[in-house]
Amino acid sequence: xxxxxxxxxxxxxxxxxxxxxxxxxxxxxxxxxxxxxxxxxxxxxxxxxxxxxxxxxxxxxxxxxxxxxxxxxxxxxxxxxxxxxxxxxxxxxxxxxxxxxxxxxxxxxxxxxxxxxxxxxxxxxxxxxxxxxxxxxxxxxxxxxxxxxxxxxxxxxxxxxxxxxxxxxxxxxxxxxxxxxxxxxxxxxxxxxxxxxxxxxxxxxxxxxxxxxxxxxxxxxxxxxxxxxxxxxxxxxxxxxxxxxxxxxxxxxxxxxxxxxxxxxxxxxxxxxxxxxxxxxxxxxxxxxxxxxxxxxxxxxxxxxxxxxxxxxxxxxxxxxxxxxxxxxxxxxxxxxxxxxxxxxxxxxxxxxxxxxxxxxxxxxxxxxxxxxxxxxxxxxxxxxxxxxxxxxxxxxxxxxxxxxxxxxxxxxxxxxxxxxxxxxxxxxxxxxxxxxxxxxxxxxxxxxxxxxxxxxxxxxxxxxxxxxxxxxxxxxxxxxxxxxxxxxxxxxxxxxx
Length: 498
Ligand code: SER
Ligand code: ZN
Fold this sequence. Notes:
Mean pLDDT: 95
Bound molecules: serine, zinc ion
């Protein structure tokens, strides 16, 4: 890497009378640095009134921006006592950083705060008027990483998703080939919700979804010792900053805005306008709500990790096995909505597990066993499992594959007969299971007495289980597999409309 910066230190008072002392200080300071990195040069030292400006260049490991703050402190110490002088501010007027890329950019890269240029595998970022806060907050190092990440991503764009088959059930003859949502809407079991991508579930489909929930709890979670917890449905941004969702999914959240005030006086005009116009006075509303600071649950695990933040878990409690069955997930879908299988609002049970690597690898086998029992013996589904790009990468806006046999995401996919040929049509992802290594353990600073911790989660989507089952087995309980009929053999009679 090559660094070239011009910085100015502004002192609290005129320094021209101690010019020599300051020059000596800088030259001693640069000697110390050069001992560590021979490529560093501090030149063009100029002193004028209350300002000291200089150029720092380096071609090694030394990052000049990291030294400026340190230099400021040393100068304040040195001249504070002697001359009652302090450094008021540092400004980097110009800063050029040249660094190597793994691959040549395929197109221009842009990032905030800097101009980016590249030539072959060499990138240069130029910054102007960088202040002290910028330096303290470590923005520069993150900007370099962002350029590298963007170039790397250019090579993945447009490439197919990573997908590797693990297991398949083999073909099963479906009972019918209709789209269950369409048929259920016709029968009045289901009604499109009041806003897009939401549904109103009438008694018949509700009974099926509740059965799915019961099977997941009774056949998978309870036998493995999972304990139920209840989490908040509202996720503050600081949780998503830690999990990476905020940078990965900003266009998919349902944002939550709090009222700016509860003071009834402030709402009078809003109320009056509503009474007179019988419409929502949005312009008035804007004045009384705050900018969003949270969103509706997107996946349940982030808040579960948050609940363990900074905690030391007793060895006795390992592995921690918990699940949430109350938070409803919201995802703003754009084009892809379809039936109850691709929605903006869905119901899911999410088990989360925290334990040692060995404990989690063993648990994965047990979970797979229980899931297989449900899908093979109770639902008699045609389905398969595949390694896919881990969800924590997609949900953090990252592409590529980093899964191994130990960590990564397994997708469970079901054949949807209404979509056509089983070889050519797209199967439905109706569940996933992941082991994530120490990613969230680190992010939320979760510890054990002795053990190194890993974590993972599994998403049991009730709409997905339901629609996968109904797409293959139809809506007539008499034609359902015996295992499922043990749980539900008759539907509620529902409500008739004229
Ligand atoms: N967190 C996982 C996901 O979002 C499981 O729910 O897919
Ligand atoms: Zn999760």
